[in-house]
Amino acid sequence: MFCAKVYARVGTKDQNCELQLRDLRAFCEARKFTVVGEYVDIGESGAKHSRPRLNDLMAEARKRRLDAVLVWRFDRFARSTKHLLIALEEFRSLGVQFISYQENIDTSTPLGQALFTIVSAVAQLERDLIRERVSAGVRNARANGKQLGRPRRIVSQDELLRLQSAGCSLREIAKQLGIGYCRLATNRMTAESLDSNQTRPARHPSMPVTNIDASQSQ
């Protein structure tokens, strides 16, 4: 019996691996492989060498409990050429085949291993070029005076005082104004403005204004 284990990965928690697993199961069925395990990492970057389910798979390979590792694409397993080559060398020493479904590459042959190395190197080059282009675009935008990131929200001090006078807590004020609680709690100017308002009614017990700065640790 030829025992195979499947590895799948997605980079964010709102994605799923069903497409990868479905194709790999069909491939194993066509090749008469027996799938003895499926290892899935959700929300794990391919740039990380250590991932929970990948570590489990490597441990099983070191115990020689499988004949082949199958992945949907090689970048599902590793984005770094160095990481990939180290893993391939370890699989080779253990007598474990490594098969990539999309690239149709099987490292059980010398040609397959050579092709796999070339393809992975090209993919890493493409990834590095994309990162470089993005960084260049950001630098150019900043040089042209463009403000990046979330636009700043201007909050009226009068509105803050009105909500404070109504007995609202910091969290309630932040929610109504559409700003972050931490930003409001750590704003010393806001705290001083609230404390200096002598005409306001008694503070809400849930909002110790004199301790606004201390609430940053909450």
The gist of it:
The chain is of the alpha/beta class and 218 residues long. The protein has helices at 18-31, 52-62, 74-77, 81-94, 110-143, 157-165, 170-177, 181-185, 188-195, and strands at residues 3-10, 34-42, 68-71, 97-100, 105-106. The chain folds into 2 domains: 3-128, Resolvase, N-terminal catalytic domain (Rossmann fold, 3-Layer(aba) Sandwich); 157-217, no CATH class.
What does this structure look like?
- By secondary structure, the chain is of the alpha/beta class.
- The chain has two domains: 3-128, 3-Layer(aba) Sandwich (Rossmann fold); 157-217, no CATH class.
- It has nine helices and five strands.
- It has helices at residues 18-31, 52-62, 74-77, 81-94, 110-143, 157-165, 170-177, 181-185, 188-195, and strands spanning 3-10, 34-42, 68-71, 97-100, 105-106.
- It has a five-stranded mixed beta sheet, with helices on both faces.
- The longest helix has 34 residues, at 110-143.
- The radius of gyration is 28 Å and the shape is elongated.
